[in-house]
Backbone:
């Protein structure tokens, strides 16, 4: 039975039929008809304070729930403010539908007020996008958009919605999806599965290398089953964190630039890499020509274009990770413990991730350990930089939907709005954004969103007074010329900032205060910002220098008090002096 | 290495931009690209010539196939297919040179499609080499303008590349 309604109502009805219960957005002129329909609908709308926040919230919501996240922005500047968030979702294959307002169809191309060619702008950062030109296409386009966003290799889809299209009357129909040009390959080829299984059985030193694809396919159960059945150690990328429980004896933690030594050594020594839903990113492989030099490579990926893109692959398996893993499980027979297991376990003992604790200064790693101790089941989102790496390294991750971080794009300002989105999707979970003093300010305006909507997320700012990750590179590779990386104590007072928004602010300046600050925050049912004044000189270690092989992973010397004092002095002196100083 | 691929795409606004954008973003080199209608009004056919090694070609095909509006991508083996391009060439032609030009036109089975006191327009069809050759020969008279369609290609025999 069909029914007459406006285009805007058809949009809302389509969203409802796609199972959308919440959208993140901010209105504007051309969106007035759509927002009027939102006002009258029962879909929950979260008003953000910057559209970038809306995109990251939709993204965090999607990663925490596995559902498609939806964000809305008006034409022109609203739409362009979404761009970073869309690019971020594209790089990390996050299912998202972004809806942008557009000027009336007859004004398109005339440089009308607040017109931006957002389908042109987002062409390279969306899985697909649409400019709707007629209200009768609304339902079909929305169905296709959600289908494209969540199937195959997920990704963001943008729908540009001219004002008149939302006003026009239309007969509501709900068509079947029929896209001859889109047939995601999900079923892995049986022959290839057999070959992969045979290679796994023959391997003496196998390593399973897991990326975000396992998370999106919800294949972590099968992964654990396979790894334990054949006693193969497992390492994950940043995107794959949580797909394999890090307290499992076969876990090697994260690999790559700031991965564990034992994961990187295992890769280099391995005779068979089983890559699942991972894309051999340069941050993971180090010098690509000498990545896993002794290994045969089996690559399972749902995106055929990823297979063979960065490395030569011996056994390609195109298909969904869950389907492929189920196939493999049927083909392999159990394997007992081997010399290889002993070797990787010995490496784990010999080269653990570590830092030097201190009684006077807060070590950022210590904060993460305490968060993990007090809130082991929390969803952790991160900003970008050292904070992100420490959150990856020192929290014991066990659940793929509980570590949410901007991997491919490395977007500062991602973690806080993503935390809000995650908390809305999973209200029963504690959600903590591990932040840096630089990154947090990039979207701290969303404190207003969290407060108004009573979303009790927690932010742990590892306040090191600098753009720490960049400073670390300057220390190591630019003879400590700290060009434009010292924030000193010039950041706002984060406690007061929180309070100004009506949130709770807490601060720890000494290690002895860390635990009580975290406990208080976790016991508070309101948004809380924790300001941890941490050692400014701390570096993320170990590290594979850019262009080196994974085997050349280095322990960076753990910073000493003198170095910390020195940075503190620089902070006190202010920026002008800093750039003139030498040799600190 | 040059490769020719036939791409069947949906006949929708913006498809050409998507394809051109993909090529520039991924640093694939296009030598020629031509688009036109097919037997089915919903689809257009592109013939694209790219150069690069096998790995590049494989990436080009896979990345193109990922575009939602791309229905089919097929490599055309030059030894099994026919390739044609059309060019129109405006060349200087006065009383002295006209007959010599006409001889060349005859040899190449080309056509004269416009004549004026000082110039002629020549239409020629063939594979790339043939067109290059006539252009080379006409240079001595002074070429004023060339427009080439880019290559179109089709597999010989019964095999078809269709949606
Ligand atoms: C939007 C954006 N701008 C710049 C960068 C480059 N960048 C990477 S890490 C980093 C420092 C981040 O500083 P902070 O948030 O304080 O984190 P820290 O490394 O100190 O923990 C910068 C500037 C980025 N990743 N994203
Ligand atoms: Mg910092």
Residues:
């Amino acid at each position: 039975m069909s029914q007459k309604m406006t285009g805007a109502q058809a949009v809302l009805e389509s969203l409802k039929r796609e199972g959308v219960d919440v959208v993140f957005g901010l209105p504007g002129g051309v969106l007035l008809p759509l927002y009027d329909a939102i006002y009258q609908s029962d879909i929950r709308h979260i008003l953000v304070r910057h559209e970038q926040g809306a995109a990251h919230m939709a993204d965090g919501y999607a990663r925490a729930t596995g559902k498609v996240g939806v964000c809305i922005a008006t034409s022109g500047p609203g739409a362009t403010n979404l761009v970073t968030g869309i690019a971020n979702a594209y790089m990390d294959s996050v299912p998202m539908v972004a809806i942008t307002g557009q000027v009336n169809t007859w004004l398109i191309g005339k440089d009308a007020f607040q017109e931006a060619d957002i389908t042109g702008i987002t062409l390279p950062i969306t899985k697909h996008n649409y400019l709707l030109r007629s209200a009768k296409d609304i339902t079909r386009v929305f169905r296709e958009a959600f289908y494209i966003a969540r199937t195959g290799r997920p990704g963001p889809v943008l729908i540009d919605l001219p004002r008149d299209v939302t006003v026009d009357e239309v007969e509501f129909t709900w068509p079947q999806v029929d896209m001859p040009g889109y047939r995601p390959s999900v079923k892995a080829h049986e022959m290839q599965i057999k070959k992969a299984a045979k290679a796994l059985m023959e391997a003496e030193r196998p390593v399973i290398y897991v990326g975000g694809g396992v998370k999106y396919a919800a294949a972590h159960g099968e992964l654990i089953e396979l790894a334990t059945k054949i006693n193969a150690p497992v390492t994950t990328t940043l995107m794959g964190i949580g797909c394999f429980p890090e307290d499992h004896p076969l876990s090697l933690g994260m690999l790559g630039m700031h991965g564990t030594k034992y994961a990187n050594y295992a890769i280099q020594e391995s005779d068979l890499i089983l890559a699942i839903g991972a894309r051999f990113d340069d941050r993971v492989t180090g010098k690509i020509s000498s990545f896993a030099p002794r290994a045969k490579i089996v690559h399972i990926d749902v995106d055929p274009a990823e297979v063979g893109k960065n490395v030569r692959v011996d056994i390609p398996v195109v298909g969904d990770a869950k389907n492929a893993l189920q196939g493999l499980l049927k083909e392999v027979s159990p394997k007992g413990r081997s010399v290889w297991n002993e070797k990787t376990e010995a490496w784990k003992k010999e080269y653990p991730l570590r830092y030097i604790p201190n009684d006077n200064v807060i070590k950022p790693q210590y904060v993460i350990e305490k968060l993990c101790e007090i809130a082991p089941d929390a969803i952790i989102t991160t900003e970008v930089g050292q904070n992100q790496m420490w959150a990856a390294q020192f929290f014991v991750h066990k659940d793929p939907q509980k570590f949410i971080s901007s991997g491919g794009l490395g977007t500062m300002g991602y973690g806080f709005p993503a935390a809000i989105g995650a908390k809305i999707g999973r209200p029963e979970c504690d959600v903590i954004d591990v932040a840096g003093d630089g990154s947090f300010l990039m979207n701290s305006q969303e404190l207003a969103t969290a407060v108004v909507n009573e979303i009790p997320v927690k932010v742990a700012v590892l306040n090191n007074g600098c753009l720490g990750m960049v400073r670390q590179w300057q220390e190591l590779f630019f003879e400590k010329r700290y060009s434009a990386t010292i924030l000193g104590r010039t950041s706002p007072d984060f406690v007061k900032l929180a309070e100004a928004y009506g949130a709770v602010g807490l601060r720890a300046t000494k290690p002895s205060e860390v635990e009580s600050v975290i406990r208080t925050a976790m016991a508070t049912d309101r948004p809380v910002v924790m300001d941890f004044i941490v050692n400014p000189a701390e570096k993320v270690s170990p590290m594979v220098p850019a262009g080196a092989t994974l085997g050349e992973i280095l322990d960076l010397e753990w910073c000493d008090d003198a170095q910390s004092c020195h940075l503190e002095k620089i902070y006190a002196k202010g920026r002008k002096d800093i750039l003139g100083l030498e040799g600190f | 290495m040059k490769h020719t691929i036939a791409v069947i795409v949906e006949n929708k606004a913006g498809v050409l931009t998507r394809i051109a954008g993909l090529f520039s973003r991924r640093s694939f080199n296009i030598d020629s690209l031509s688009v036109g209608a097919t037997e089915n009004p919903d689809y257009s056919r592109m013939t694209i010539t790219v150069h690069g090694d096998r790995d590049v070609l494989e990436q080009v095909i896979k990345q193109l196939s990922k575009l939602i509006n791309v229905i089919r991508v097929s490599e055309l083996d030059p030894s099994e297919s026919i390739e044609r391009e059309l060019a129109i060439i405006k060349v200087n032609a006065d009383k002295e040179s006209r007959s010599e030009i006409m001889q060349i036109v005859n040899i190449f089975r080309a056509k004269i499609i416009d004549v004026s006191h000082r110039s002629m327009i020549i239409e020629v069809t063939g594979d790339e080499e043939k067109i290059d050759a006539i252009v080379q020969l006409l240079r001595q008279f002074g070429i004023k303008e060339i427009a080439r369609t880019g290559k179109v290609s089709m597999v010989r025999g019964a095999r078809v590349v269709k949606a």
